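FAQ: What does the model actually see?

It sees only this:
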Amino acid sequence: MTNKNKSRFLPAILLLAVVALLVIILIPRLINQSKVAPTLSTDAKATRIAQLVEAMNTNKNAESQAHKDAYKEYCQLTARPEDQRAKAVANIKEFLGDKSVAVDFICSTFEGTDYNNPKNEHYNAKLGGFTIDPKTNYIVSVRAEAWEGSRWGTNSDGSRWFDPQAEYDYTPRYTQAQAQKVAEKFIEDHKNILGVDLTSLKLDPEMTNIKDGGGSKINYFFGWRNSTGGSLSLTITNGGQVIVYSNELNGQAPK
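And it is asked to produce this:
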């Protein structure tokens, strides 16, 4: 190819190079932008939250679709960003001893109308409900029911139907005394997700109990108190599984 022909194609080559460079730079940005969900401005968000609160207060029937829709949007708008909740999710998985378990964020609770600073967060996992302190991501309570609550009803033949219930380990492994040691070890081994130091607490005999559900299903109840009267309570099966937990060491039950 002569120098004359080369000079003829040079502008076209340069143009193609510029276009290719723009494609390389802009396409990833456009893709990332398409993945970002639209967000409300701060003022618009506050206005919308106020509208949703008013709607729920006006329609207090929690089973109505209008209330459910308002509640769902309210929970989404007032939630911490997902990346800030990642540690809470990881702590719940560690409590359950299952890194693959699905953990669903339900909603936050607040003191007053400061919707930027949640007091507690509620999650569901394995048909149970968890409460998290968002300031620390510590688990402050675990209950046997999911936060929506279990449902039941009556079939056409008069029999009752129930939502699925969690299945627990009731293999008869431990006596009450042995279960206490298992429970204490569980708390000690999980300081990083519970934030509790048992050495500063004292076992309360009045919070210690046994419930025999029949068929080898036995639950043991233990409780500890601090110097100010706050309490920590736990329920563990005779198979060694912690199924209920509540940290009220600050004197107030988590809600």
